[in-house]
Write a structure and sequence with these properties.
Elements lengths: L1 H19 L39 H12 L9 H14 L14 H10 L13 H20 L8 H12 L7 H4 L4 H16 L3 H7 L61
Helix pairs in contact: 5-6
């Protein structure tokens, strides 16, 4: 028993040491203790569930696609180095992954870059929007212009709260700077495109499926329990835990769609965006 307790204490000390190295301004908070929650391999309410445990039930084509999202990270071929760095900083605020340890963070920017590089769209874009690649380049310039206007520094140098304040002006459709840029790219459509690209990449990844308890592809096995929300035999029960967003961010703030008086359609420049 003493040896077991000693190992547990050593493990706790190691975890505390790693936690001390992290930026507490970016970590979710335990609302009971007020302490930062350490990153984990599997955030979410379904501990112990791993969708890839079911991959032997998938057909070969499905397995190749899903596993490929983990093993085949595309290289950056569209964004410049500075654009890639800025995109990473933006995505870290749009869809924070600070509750994940480094080994289980989902790469988002490489897959957005791949879409732009190959020109993948749904067949059309708005006539008042440039092609998606150009829209991103202009939008990134606009974001840095807002950061300089509000905080006199580039976006990547700002603290989380400052970055959130910059992005909030896009969400409200009221950018205070970069007018020459936003005349060529709709801020509302750009913001919607950015959000949808990030969300589509994140929730296509098996780690995100583990996080939300998604059962994964049902073909060819199929689902058995179609009523009353009961889990399938291979799924696990939900185990909720309390958490709160970092207090030095705008993550806990909410606003009703359209309350800012912007009636422009909330979709982007190409099909599903």
């Amino acid at each position: 028993m003493a040896i077991r307790e000693e190992k547990r204490t050593a493990k706790q000390q190691a975890a505390s040491s790693e936690l001390a190295k992290l930026d507490k301004n970016r970590l979710p908070i335990d609302p009971t203790t007020g302490e930062a929650l350490a990153p984990r391999a599997q955030p979410g309410y379904y501990p112990g569930y791993h969708v890839l445990d079911n991959q032997n039930f998938w057909d070969e084509a499905t397995r190749k696609v899903v596993v490929g999202r983990m093993e085949n990270i595309p290289p950056i071929r569209c964004f410049t180095l500075s654009e890639e760095q800025l995109m990473n900083a933006i995505i870290e605020r749009v869809l924070p992954q600070d509750d994940r340890d480094e080994a289980h963070k989902i790469p988002i920017v490489p897959f957005i870059d791949e879409r732009l590089y190959v020109g993948r769209i749904d067949g059309y874009r708005y006539d008042h929007m440039p092609p998606d690649e150009d829209a991103y380049r202009l939008g990134l310039q606009g974001i840095d212009a807002i950061a300089q206007h509000l905080h006199k520094r580039p976006f990547i140098e700002l603290e989380p709260l400052g970055q959130d304040q910059v992005l909030l002006t896009l969400q409200t459709g009221q950018p205070p700077a970069g007018d020459d840029i936003w005349q060529h790219v709709s801020v509302t459509h750009f913001w919607a495109m950015l959000l949808q690209d990030a969300v589509k990449v994140y929730y296509a990844h098996p780690y995100a499926w583990d996080e939300i308890g998604y059962g994964g592809p049902a073909y060819p096995r199929g689902y058995m329990r179609l009523e009353k929300g009961r889990p399938e035999p291979w799924e696990v029960d939900e185990k909720r835990y309390e958490w709160a967003p970092p207090p030095t961010t705008l993550s806990g703030e909410a606003s009703r769609e359209g309350e800012h008086g912007h009636n422009e359609p909330r979709h982007g420049s190409s099909g599903t965006h």
